Amino acid sequence: MRGILVPLFMGAVFTLTNSAAYASEKLSADVTDAEAIPDTPAGQAMRTWFEAMNSRDPVRIQSYIDRYQRTSSAEDYLDYYKYLGVMALVRIEESEPNSISALMTVSNSDQLYRVRSVTDPQDRTKLIGLTMSAIDRPEDLAIPRLTQKDALAALDKKAEGLRANEKFAGAMIIAKNTEAIYARAWGLADRSNGIYNKVDTKFRLGSANKMFTAIAILQLVEKDLLTLNGKVEDYLPDYPNQDFANKVTIRQILTHTGGTGDIFTAEYLANISDYKTHSDYVEKFGHRSVEFEPGSQERYSNYGFLLLGYLVEKISNMSYYEYVRRNIFEPAGMKDSGFLPEDVSVAGRAVGYTEVDGSFIPNSDSLPYRGTAAGGGYSTASDMLQFAKALQSGKLIPAALLNQASSPQNRGGWYGYGFQTRGKAETAYFGHSGGAPGMNAEFRIYPGFGTVIVALSNMDGPYAETLADYYATRMPAEP
Fold first, then answer.
1. What is the pTM of this model?
2. Which fold has domain 4-141?
3. In this predicted model, what pLDDT tens digit does every residue of 40-62 receive, in sequence order?
């Protein structure tokens, strides 16, 4: 979820890039350490956080939590550290007594971050906010672009290093002007049976499924069966919470501005296999009120996309799964994609592995009954390339509607209609990430480069996105 500000450890704010963040192998020549952070109240807060995170020491992290009145646990911070890696300070941008802004990298990718710390002028131990936002690299910190041959060779080396260090197993395809120029797979799809991943291995997509849901909704818009400005009550008159239904529009749900909330409550996680249909989710969560006045904020919402899937079913008079199969997978030529339940044996579907106490175990206990309109279905790298081709050729929705869907539609500029949006001018891209224990997916279309990048993994993130970033920052600039 690159570019999305979400609560960090319930006491600060962090910007996730698909459930995580990344870092550079090589830093700018002006890299400095924590001692370069000014000795102001805001600087002290940033330095304490920086050093505590890099220490990986729960006691030191707890000391930071206590000192700055944070409310999350040291374990929460360590979980985020697993995605970040080692942080390095590049330079201080601005510094005032109670606010400071700095650029930082982290060791798991090439992503550059802007970190901002703001303290209460009346109480230097009270943080008003700590934000860490993914940003595009300024010209003086840009990573040099390579020839195609060198960029792909560098990617090979990077991926092999991650595989050798038990960080990544999966598959990747890169296409230029619709033709694949790179297709490789690494690691094991099934560790118990010694089955290796292939380019046509089926990987779970996580939230990348949201693109299919958005296309389904936009197809119904194109057929005049619903409108983007229509409200939930216009199509679901029996929706459990009528106050919710008469406030929230389809456009707001598609852009995460509807205040529709999430599903990952303790009760849901304890009974995850009980939710078998989209109506089950609406029955459970449909009584809730909106989290904020629709349109006034933006917050990533899995429930919103489950509700869109339920809408697809009500309007089309078929299951969400049947609709997507007939109207997206078949026209696109996606023969190896689907949503079959986890208790159904699917030939070629990888086992997901999550790391627990240094060992890799199947992610079965964390999986829902089956994938939904919010995420969790499966596909192959080859099929996702077919999806990209169908999108760009107009087979799924008209070009004008795709242009809207793939352009920023919320104030933060990080989301269109079911597509994450990032970058500027020729480096702009759209697509979607997906991540959960034992799965990681990254799908990107760079119109200015004529390039499609697909990376899928059956291990914990963020390394599918790491590899997509790694190639994207080095790929040749010519169209």
1. 0.88
2. Nuclear Transport Factor 2; Chain: A, (3.10.450)
3. 999 999 999 999 999 989 999 99
